[in-house]
Design a protein that fits this description.
- With about 290 residues, the protein is of the alpha/beta class.
- It has a single domain, classed as Rossmann fold.
- The chain is built from eight helices and eight strands; from the N terminus they run E-E-E-H-E-H-E-H-E-H-H-H-E-H-E-H.
- The protein has an eight-stranded mixed β-sheet with strand order 1-2-4-3-5-6-7-8, sandwiched between helices.
- Helix 2 packs across helix 3 and helix 4 runs antiparallel to helix 6.
Length: about 290
């Protein structure tokens, strides 16, 4: 099955959100699930190393509608970059889901988020006004934390340690002198790590334990509009993974939300490896195929 990729826009207040809709050919959108991808604070709709593009194309070729969009202040969406935060991301997600339901009437809504996009999705399924049928979260940062500076330091230390280990490998020096090292990718990794640190510190006030984020109606219980399960995927070498997974599992267990978890061996926060990328893609595809018929 082939698909076509269509530019789409959504209006949140006076600002436009830009996205790409993967529409399987010869298929009506109101007869199939819609998978919505949520990028992290340092990225945009393609995801790290184009992970979202690759996943969306595979899923669309198997008959699923997929939407990749830019939060305000990111990519092609309107809005000032400095105003982007968890509250604006939650508002953007709510706008997108409402618009998708109105325009395309999909049978199910499935969210796939990475880093701050994953944390935004977790906040939304807890308090959001629109129904969501499944969440796949990749590398969510801590849901709450008492010391943002300590966490940022841990991430940076992990990055430095990883590259120091690689520098001790003689094979990597051979690749360096042979011109086989991808300096552009290394630069993006460092840039994204530092950007994520700043974003976490800047927005720490929005994720303190017990704080209510906008979205849920006053008379509705947490997870009132969530109708499915959560898949948790984290990298073994992500310095926040252990604590983040404990926090998320504790939250889901408290409200009796079903979940499964997967730790990718040796993987970092953004899964910069074809092997890790394939493991994630295969897991996500099987998860969706086993739960949502087209």
């Amino acid at each position: 099955m082939e698909d076509r990729e269509i530019p789409v826009t959504f209006l949140n207040g006076k600002e436009k959100l830009f996205g790409i809709l993967h529409h399987p050919l010869n298929t009506e959108l109101n007869e199939i699930p819609m998978i919505i991808f949520l990028h992290g604070s340092a990225g945009y709709r393609i995801g790290p190393h184009q992970l979202f593009i690759k996943m969306a194309r595979v899923l669309a070729q198997h008959g699923y509608a997929c939407l990749r969009f830019d939060f305000r202040g990111k990519g092609y969406s309107e809005g000032a970059r400095e105003n982007t935060g968890y509250r604006s991301m939650l508002s953007d997600l709510d706008t997108v889901i409402q618009s998708v339901n109105s325009m395309y009437k999909p049978t199910h809504i499935i969210l796939v988020g990475i880093c701050s996009g994953a944390r935004t999705a977790l906040s939304y399924i807890k308090n959001g006004k629109q129904t969501v049928h499944s969440l796949i979260e990749l590398s969510s940062p801590l849901l709450w934390q008492t010391n943002e500076v300590s966490t940022a330091t841990s991430r940076t230390k992990g990055l430095i340690t990883d590259y120091a280990r690689k520098a001790m490998n003689p094979d990597n020096w051979k690749r360096l002198f042979a011109g086989e090292v991808n300096y552009e990718m290394i630069g993006r990794i460092v840039k994204n790590t530092l950007a994520n640190h700043w974003f976490s510190i800047k927005n720490s006030v929005c994720v303190k334990k017990g704080e209510k984020l906008p979205g849920k109606a006053p008379d509705e219980k947490p997870f009132h509009n969530f109708k499915g399960e959560v898949l948790l995927i984290h990298g073994e070498k992500d310095p926040e993974a252990g604590t983040a997974m404990k926090q998320i599992k504790s939250l889901l267990q408290k409200y009796r939300i079903g979940y499964q978890d997967l730790t990718i061996k040796n993987a970092n926060h953004s899964f910069y490896s074809l092997q890790w990328e394939k493991e994630i893609a295969d897991t996500v595809y099987k998860w969706i195929m086993n739960r949502f018929s087209k």
